[in-house]
Design a protein that fits this description.
With 338 residues, the chain is α/β, with parallel strands linked by helices. The chain has 3 domains: 37-96, OB fold (Dihydrolipoamide Acetyltransferase, E2P) (Beta Barrel), CATH 2.40.50.140; 102-263, 3-Layer(aba) Sandwich (Rossmann fold); 277-332, Ribonucleotide Reductase Protein R1, domain 1 (Orthogonal Bundle). The protein has 9 helices and 13 strands. The chain has helices at residues 13-17, 137-149, 167-173, 190-196, 211-218, 277-281, 285-289, 308-314, 320-332, and strands at residues 37-45, 48-53, 56-62, 76-81, 91-96, 102-106, 114-119, 123-129, 153-159, 180-182, 200-204, 244-247, 260-263. The strands form 3 sheets. Strands 10-9-8-11-13-12 form a 6-stranded mixed sheet. It has a 5-stranded mixed barrel with strand order 1-2-3-5-4. Residues 13-17 and 227-240 have low confidence and may be disordered.
Length: 338
């Protein structure tokens, strides 16, 4: 028997319940969002975003057309909807502006998945205690690698100078030309404020090094929780659970006019699987120039047999301490964090 082309008749229930095919033609045209307002993302919490728009704090969600495109602290975005900031109001993020810098990490050194920490920051402030807890070169070196890879200016901020002499640590990094400031609890922060003025700076460090104490001193109404150092492990308790972008006190009254600081959670892991040696050495133009005649595939590490850096040191054209420091950064990509 020939099969009936119309499977269901007017007497079948399925004839009425079966959903009809959409007849509306598809279009490639998308909304222009000409009336969208610009803002900056200052916190991210379980799919909800806090933004600063026209000097006021508002809340937003990501619009569906953005798909899986990530939105992180520091992103400059365009939003539509209710941008009054009133209780219960909610806007939609419809566009993420191009990023000038991206600070990223992988969970582990063999993890291929990169995680963006902060966008559009120009300076990475590596906060390290000189004692209690003891400084850990692993994080400092890895943070420097991340900063150079992201084309961000690094700054060493050495805290608790009342407990130890900073010179021991500084001697390790002086050949790299990394700038530094030294602070102590209750001390003068004028030099640090000058380094932060007019920039978006990320504060990064192990728990217990005084990061939240600095934030509270720089932004008096920040209210960041301060933790203690465990007497047994020598490690601090994690008090910051998510990145938070705060405007520094402004002389104009407009948030952000005098700079921003981004407080990040205490570091548990900081993988650098995404960093390639050729990208790292580009941050050191004087050394990069000396590697022009290196064999193809040279990583510029200590074990390379014909690296141009070795030839430059032998000829007296390169500072051996600077070359050694650069190679230590190379090795830090896979060295232990602690």
């Amino acid at each position: 028997m020939a099969r009936n082309a119309n499977r269901y008749t007017d007497h079948d229930v399925e004839h009425y319940d079966r959903p009809r095919r959409r007849t509306r033609p598809r279009t490639k045209e998308r909304p222009s969002y000409d009336e969208a307002t610009e803002g900056v993302v200052v916190t991210v919490d379980r799919g909800r975003f806090t933004l600063i728009v026209d000097g006021r704090e508002i809340w937003a969600v990501k619009a569906r057309p953005l798909g899986r495109k990530g939105v992180v602290v520091g992103d400059r975005v365009r939003v539509v909807g209710d941008v009054t900031g009133a209780d219960g109001s909610l806007a939609r993020i419809v566009e993420v502006q191009p990023r000038s810098t991206v600070l990223r990490r992988t969970a582990d050194d063999d993890d291929p998945v990169e995680r963006v920490i902060v966008a559009n920051a120009s300076q990475l402030v590596i906060v390290t205690a000189l004692a209690d807890p003891e400084p850990r070169h692993g994080l400092i070196d890895r943070a420097l690698v991340a900063a150079y890879d992201a084309r961000m200016a690094p700054l060493l901020c050495l805290t608790k100078a009342d407990l130890a002499d900073p010179e021991t640590l500084l001697s390790t990094y002086r050949s790299l030309g990394v700038p530094w400031v030294v602070t102590q609890r209750g001390g003068d922060l004028t030099e640090l404020r000058e380094r932060l003025a007019g920039r978006a700076s990320v504060l990064l460090g192990h728990s217990g090094v005084g990061k939240s104490t600095l934030v509270n001193a720089l932004v008096p109404d920040a209210g960041r929780e301060v933790g203690d150092v465990n007497a047994v492990t020598g490690r601090g308790r994690h008090t910051s659970t998510s990145a938070l972008m705060l405007p520094l006190p402004s002389s104009t009254g407009t948030p952000g006019d005098d700079g921003w600081i981004i407080d990040t959670p205490g570091i548990r892991s900081f993988g650098l699987a995404h960093v390639e040696p050729e990208h790292l050495i580009e941050a050191f133009p004087d050394l990069d120039e000396m590697t022009e005649d290196c064999p193809r595939g040279c990583t510029h590490g200590e074990e390379e047999p014909e690296c141009g850096l070795d030839a430059a040191v032998a000829a007296g054209e390169a500072d051996p301490d600077r070359v050694a420091s650069f190679r230590r950064l190379l090795a830090a990509r896979s060295a232990p964090l602690y």
